[in-house]
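To whoever is covering the structure queue this week,

Two jobs came back overnight. Logging them here so there's a record in the thread.

Job A:
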Amino acid sequence: MYLIRKLFTPLKYLKIYHKQKFLVDFWAPVIVSVFLVGLLAFLPADVDILGSQGVLNRVNGLLQILSGFYVAALAAIASFNSENLDSLLGGLGVKLNGRQLTRRQFLSYLFGYLAFISYTLVLLGIGIGIFLPNIELVVTAVKSQNLIMWIKYIFLTIYFTILCSMFFTTLLGLYYLTEKIHEDRTEFVKRD
């Protein structure tokens, strides 16, 4: 059990508390995902989801590139020498298990989470590609088109929610890397 907890450590990012973070992690991805799935449902022509030119295959190509970027960003954050990175996050603070995090800790969890999610989605895309002939056989064997439609839309909603979560979290990480990491934190010095 301890080994499994170690392997899933990047998911601790989801436990980090900040009042605005739930919007980035959950609400924005769910809203955009439902909108995208609704759009796909009402388009006049069917959109290829699982095929060689389908949505999953195209997204998988991008995710393979992004996963390398996330690991490189994580390595840079872990090794970059900066007092700004080692200072606590300002404002109301960002906490994990009741403990306030530094910028370095927050960004490490953020990019670790992004790398974990991108690897997971890449493996999901590869797995679906491998099992696609069997998936098509099951789909053709099922007589209820309504059931197939619901399964398709539920799968797409979950997939797009995870993908959108990754997108919004990436934007949050880029904000911290471009803006907050260089913010000058002036400390008051008591003069005699």
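Job B:
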Amino acid sequence: MATTADISRGLIVKLDGSLYKVVEYGENKTARAAAKVWAKLTGVDNNRSIEKTWNSGETIYPVRVERKAYQFLYKDDSGYNFMDNETFEQIIVQEALIDAPGFLKDGQEVSVLMNTETDLPMSVELPDKIVLLVTYSEPGMRGDTATRTLKPATVETGATVNVPLFVNEGELIRVNTKTGEYVERVKEA
């Protein structure tokens, strides 16, 4: 059995029949009352975000999660299709379980969090930063670099990213998949 002392960021717990991921946690201690442990939780199998408070030492129910490497194959009417890199088995995942579906490109490697109790995928995480090709962007004005002015650019996956004025069509850029923001321009190898 796990207790509130085992809470950590990223831990997935079962609470009221649903699964939640710990985003942030802390402890409140007072001189008169017993310590309390609080956590901000995000739903894994639902779209809810909640806060929960327990008495210190109270029992929690963590869920065993396994992180596996999968490769994105294609998207069709049934969902997003991924292939296990070790066993070559394919799974179909719904868009709601993918953290940044707009940045998925064919053949990209992702991490799939599998619930070991049910062997079902719980979420799909892309790498923090990925390199994408700019397929469309308005040309920037020469000499207009004094301010951090951004312009929209369409990347190879169809997503739109705000980029600096000097980024042009046909260039590679690095994008943060968690925020959807431009990071830097990438030189071709």
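Note for Job B: The longest strand covers residues 65-76.

Please reply-all if you pick these up so we don't duplicate work.
Q.
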